[in-house]
Specification:
The protein is α/β, with parallel strands linked by helices. It has one domain: Vaccinia Virus protein VP39 (Rossmann fold), CATH 3.40.50. The chain contains six helices and eleven strands. The strands form three sheets. A seven-stranded mixed β-sheet has the order 1-10-11-7-6-4-5, sandwiched between helices. The protein is globular and about 50 Å long.
């Protein structure tokens, strides 16, 4: 099934600023609409369509209205109960990234709900939970696709992890990343940490990424590196600047 992913593709900070200036009225209207839904008490349960199977559904949010986190909420009414973030990632993978059957997919970081869906799609997930001795325990170029979903911000040896991701993806393969991202900044902001170099995660986020993350991927031999910003009331993708970062290995 081919499903259109409602996103705009942006490659760098200058392009983002130009796009933001052009679409400012649209963004303001979306924000006002979301605030109206919260004030009217309509954001806790909303009718819509699942972007993965196109079935009618009800998206629900369990948090307090005043603290609405659209990205982590908007749980789909199907048995998977996937959040906005996980549904958006899977929708991107199927519609934009060209994830195909029987591809080897490296899942980097802790277990996530997307693994079961990938197996249903007949992909072949390989879970790589962390760096071990500065390495992902996987051979060179064995992955058709590497996915790191909301884990990269916890990895102290960031450059090491990015090099390892580049190493395990075959030429022509793809990488998909989701992580906290400051759309207005070029430089990634990193906190100091007191962990040994071989450590691979921490209880608190260490990095708030900027657009230099995309340049780091380009320096490692990736092409077509871009942030895909998505929003859809119908698919339950509400909230400011939802994005997925995608790239192709040269």
């Amino acid at each position: 099934m081919s499903l259109r992913f409602p996103a705009s593709k942006v490659s760098n900070l200058a392009e983002f600023e130009a796009w933001l200036a052009t679409e400012r009225t649209v963004f303001d209207q979306r924000w006002l609409y979301e605030q109206q839904q919260i004030k009217a008490g309509l954001s806790g349960a909303r009718d819509g369509t699942c972007g993965l199977c196109l079935a009618p559904t009800v998206f629900s949010s369990d948090g307090l209205e005043r603290d609405r986190n659209w990205r982590e909420e908007m749980l789909c009414g199907c048995e998977r109960r996937l959040s906005n973030r996980h549904r958006g990632l899977l929708h991107y993978l199927r519609a934009r990234a060209g994830l195909a059957r029987r591809q080897q997919v490296a899942l980097i970081g802790p277990e996530t709900p997307i693994e079961g869906v990938l197996r249903e799609w007949d992909a072949r997930p390989i879970r790589l939970p962390r760096l071990v001795g500065g390495s992902l325990r996987c051979g060179d170029g064995v992955a058709d696709h590497a996915i790191c979903t909301d884990y990269l911000q916890f990895v102290p040896p960031l450059k090491t992890m990015l090099r390892e991701i580049a190493r395990i993806v075959r030429p022509g393969g793809e990488v998909t990343i989701t992580a906290p991202f400051d759309v207005s900044a070029y430089d990634t902001k990193s906190k100091p940490y007191n962990l040994p170099p071989a450590a691979s995660d921490n209880a608190e986020p260490l990095h708030l990424f900027g657009w230099d993350l995309l340049d780091a991927l380009r320096d490692l031999g990736f092409s077509d590196v871009a942030a895909h910003f998505y929003w859809s009331d119908e698919f339950g993708y509400l909230g400011p600047f939802n994005l997925v970062i995608g790239a192709v290995r040269l």
